[in-house]
Amino acid sequence: MAPADRVRVRYIVRDVDEAVAFYGERLGFEVAFQPGPGFAMLRRGALELLVNEPGAGGAGQAVADGRRPEPGGWNRIQVEVADLEEEVRALGAAGAEFRNEIVSGRGGRQILLEDPSGNPIELFEPPRG
């Protein structure tokens, strides 16, 4: 896949090594690039997830009005799963934290999983059939 076909999202995290372990072990991401402390690029399919500690690199620096990058918020990536209840059970058994219970809508079912820094990941199961 050519780089132009990839989608990149950046999350600010408290600890890059912790984020790399979480996304790799729990959600199947692979490390694409980790040049040193404070930054890593993870890959899952067409998604490249850039994880950055506050203060590391340009993306971790404060902006002109003094606001500093920090983890958390509500913007999120969506990871599609085949069996949401099984994923929730396995992740819960491994100590993962969720913001809510599974919710259902016309488009499918979802739940918000938190990474170790509090960044949300929407686990999504499309409607069956």
Could you give a short description of this structure?
The protein has 129 residues and is of the alpha+beta class. It is 17% helix and 36% strand.
In the CATH scheme, what's the topology name?
Answer: 2,3-Dihydroxybiphenyl 1,2-Dioxygenase, domain 1
Number of helices in the DSSP assignment? 2
Q: What is the helix content? A: 10-25%
- The number of distinct β-strands equals 9
Largest sheet: 5 strands, mixed
- How large is the share of residues in beta strands? 35-45%
> CATH class, anyone?
Alpha Beta
Radius of gyration from CA coordinates? 15 Å
Low-pLDDT stretches are none
- What number is the mean pLDDT? 91
Could you say which overall geometry the principal axes of the C-alpha atoms support?
A: globular
Number of domains: 1
Distance between the termini: 30 Å
Specify the CATH homologous superfamily.
Answer: 2,3-Dihydroxybiphenyl 1,2-Dioxygenase, domain 1
Task: Indicate the CATH architecture.
Answer: Roll
Order of helices and strands: EHEEEEHEEEE
Essential attributes:
single chain, 129 residues, alpha+beta, 2,3-Dihydroxybiphenyl 1,2-Dioxygenase, domain 1, five-stranded mixed beta sheet, four-stranded mixed beta sheet, 2 helices, 9 strands, globular
Describe what this molecule looks like in 3D.
With 129 residues, the protein is α+β, with helices and mostly antiparallel strands. It has a single domain, classed as Roll (2,3-Dihydroxybiphenyl 1,2-Dioxygenase, domain 1). The chain has two helices and nine strands, in the order E-H-E-E-E-E-H-E-E-E-E. The strands form two sheets. Strands 5, 6, 7, 8 and 9 form a five-stranded mixed beta sheet that branches. A four-stranded mixed beta sheet has the order 1-4-3-2, with helices on one face. The two termini are 30 Å apart.
